[in-house]
Write a structure and sequence with these properties.
Helix content: 10-25%
Oligomer: single chain
Order of helices and strands: HHHHEEEEEEEEEEEE
Distance between the termini: 109 Å
Strand content: over 45%
Largest sheet: 9 strands, antiparallel
Number of strands: 12
Structural class: alpha+beta
Radius of gyration: 43 Å
Shape: elongated
């Protein structure tokens, strides 16, 4: 039986197509030294996009011995953080203090009774002081100083004409922001001095019905505070404190005929307490 012309060529072409298809379906033998690609890597390889295999960055750094820019930035941030910790521990300070007023209080003498003098006795003194370092090094440091304190004076029992005084105690409060200078800061024992000017609320003498009815009323005025002390620190954050503080306030008492008043312009207090640095 004769074949039609061109039949053999068609058959050969079909055979070639079947062979090519079978060749394309053959699965290549895996290479044990080649790592299998992830789906995302396979897509990148098919589209001609370069990709990075896991651990290639670490291998490259191990081979070259250098750090990338992101590594350098992380190291710089860590170095800045740890270097700032000691500075932060010395920047702010808060002290809580309690003690006693040590200066002499008001002295009153009623005319006609020269040998009988009324005298205020000293009461408590308490306050909180904030210090914020603004300049200086290990030897001398300058800080903002903001104290809030109260001094108390009390009427002693058995004083002459005590019944004339309707108040048995009086208190003076003040806030006098200023500056503090600290010495020997890197050592455990650190002396300091301070001074400031601000607002004072002073208990002033106010007679209402002559010398038989005397009150103490609070009066707002200016105040100047100054003094010094010593801190004994334990580590960077804690310590104890001993301090002498003075307060000079403006204003004057109102007195009446028959009463002589000796009112000291400056009051002093001795306090001790604890401090926290942060």
């Amino acid at each position: 039986m004769k074949e039609k012309p061109g039949t053999s060529s068609i058959r050969s072409r079909k055979s070639n197509q079947v062979f090519e298809r079978a060749s394309s379906l053959k699965t290549p033998r895996p290479n044990p030294t080649t790592r299998a690609l992830t789906p995302s890597q396979a897509i990148s390889a098919r589209e001609g996009v370069p990709f990075r295999t896991p651990g290639s960055g670490a291998k490259r750094r191990a081979q070259t011995g250098s750090l990338t820019q992101s590594d350098m930035q992380r190291l710089a941030l860590f170095a800045l953080f740890f270097s700032a910790l000691p500075l932060c521990a010395q920047t702010h300070e808060l002290g809580f203090q309690f003690g006693k007023a040590v200066s002499e209080g008001r002295r009153f003498r009623f005319d006609g009774f020269p040998n009988n003098v009324f005298k205020e006795s000293n009461g408590y003194a308490a306050g909180v002081a904030y210090n914020g370092k603004i300049a200086g090094g290990d030897g001398i440091a300058l800080s903002i100083h903001v104290p809030v304190f109260v001094f108390e004076n009390k009427v002693p029992e058995g004083a002459f004409n005590q019944n004339a005084f309707r108040d048995t105690s009086s208190a003076t409060g003040f806030i006098t922001p200023g500056l503090q200078v600290r010495f020997l800061q890197p050592f455990p024992i650190q002396p300091y001095v301070f001074a400031g000017v601000g607002y004072a609320r002073v208990a002033r003498l106010t007679p209402r019905s002559g010398i038989d009815d005397i009150h103490f009323e609070n009066e707002g005025t200016w105040g100047v505070s100054a003094g010094g002390g010593v801190d004994v620190v334990f580590g960077r954050h804690f310590g104890i404190r001993g301090e002498i503080r003075s307060l000079t306030a403006g204003g004057s008492d109102r007195i009446v005929q028959g009463l002589t008043l000796d009112d000291p312009a400056t009051r002093w207090a001795a306090t001790a307490g604890v401090l926290f640095r942060f």
